[in-house]
Each structure stands twice: as C-alpha cells, then as structure tokens.
What does this fold into?
Amino acid sequence: MENNKTPMFKRVLAILGIVLLLGVYVVFFIQAVFGKTGPGSAFAACAAATVAIPILVWLILWVYTALTGKRTVASADPYGRFESDSVSDSGDKSEGKKISTVVFDIGNVLVDFCWEDFLRNKGFPEEMVQRIGDASVRTDEWNEFDRGVLDTKGIVDGFVKNDPSIEKEIRDAFSDFSGLLRKRERTLPWIKSLKENGYKVLVLSNFSKQALEANPFMNEFLDEVDGGILSYRDKVIKPDPAIFNLLTERNHVNPEECVFIDDTEKNIAAAKALGFNGIVFKNYEQVDSELNRLGVCWN
It folds into this structure.
C-alpha cells in the first residue's frame, strides 16, 4: 500500500513556520498594547514577517530539493505533471523517457491473420481445417516459413511430413496464399494519425514473403510506415533478441523511447527484457488506454 503521509521534516518545518508567525504576532501585539511600539509599526512588522517567514521556509525546501533530488513544493515540477512516467497495466514504466516511436507487430494487430477462414473458404470442412492447422500453422515449421529460409515447396513439404495422410489437402491449401490475411480498416488512419502527431512508426513482424506477395493490400500501410523489419528479409524471428537489436540499430531508435505492440506475450516479454515498453494487444480500447498511460497521444 502506498504511504501518502507527509515526511516528518516537512511537518516540523511547517509547524515551526506557524509558531514563528504566531510568536511574532504575539510579541508585536504586546508591544503595541503597552505602548512600546506604535500600532502602525507593529502592523508593518507583522506584515513583513508574514511574507518573510514563508519565503524562508520555501528557501529551506528549495535547498533540500537541490541536495536530495526529491520533489517538494519548491520543485520546478512539484506534482510531476510533465513527466512521462505513467505505468501501464502490463507493468511498463518509461522512467521519464518520452515515447517517440511506436512499433507494431502485423498479424492480429494491423491485419487479421485469419488462417481458419482462409482454409474454410477453400472448401475444407472444419475437421480438416483443424488437421491442416495442426500440420502447418501450429508447428515449428511455420516459424521457419516466416524466417524465410525455405521456398514454398520446401515449407509445404515440411507440412506434409507432419501429416502425410492429408498430403493432397495440404498442397491444395497452400497452393495460393491470398486470403490468409484480412484488412483492418483502422490500420492506415491509426498510422497516419501517429505520424501527424510526431511519432516514428515502425513494424516488427514474423512474416513470410509468400503471404506478403499474395496480399497486396499490405502495401497500403507498409508504404506509410517509417521502416521496420519483416522477418523473412533478415532471416531472424521474434522472440530472438537479435531481431529487436536489429530494429533499433537500423532505425536509430532508443528502446526506452519505443513502445512495442504485439499480440503474443512471449514477444512482449523479450522486448521488455531489452528495455522496450510493451503492450500485449487484446483489443483497440485496451491498447488505446495503455498508450495514453505512456503519454502517447494522437487524433
């Protein structure tokens, strides 16, 4: 539980200031009553003390702030209103670093990775959709697909090895990758708005050449971003730290000034370990809220 009590020295200082003021008032009141000081002089002295003692207290607090670095009413920013140190629900803290760069994953963040609908639209019944998924999308071979180390035949051969009894269905399913991704209408306006508000926008995604070429609508937002990494081009995938280091080096960004948005927790954990701020994408409202807490604002 947070302790909101005022530190003891501040309370002592405040009490001392009050006592001094009351003491001054009493002394000059007594002198005025017994004729040792004229009423006008007593009033002037009390007025001067009323101004001088708070100033003295403020100077003492200012010296304390300068020596300790702790925030007081004498600080330039006593309430921390201008610090971008908001904490998100996922435990991020920007440690005073202003966010300058927003990094997006693509699948299930900027587009729908709708592999089940992709297979259903090819006429496969639900049981076969799941079997094909178990032989392809849900396997390590799919990571190698995104890594870009195999051509289409090589990767499909790997899927077939996972379930040889449905070889024909697997080869038919992946003869064409169009429809594997679905456009999200929010994506392009989101990117444009962030850029208009001064943020650099990058992408960092495990992504295959085949999926990109078969879904040309992707270029609408890829042409709009400031850069980034698609895994197949550099033969490295998340959550390998190398892909995050490559992103920062190539785009000249500081991880502490970046927020990475991805739908997979292990990728966000890897990014955080390297100093990034991270948000696990669940829905737009949740992401908007966490971006706001990090100080990221857009239209």
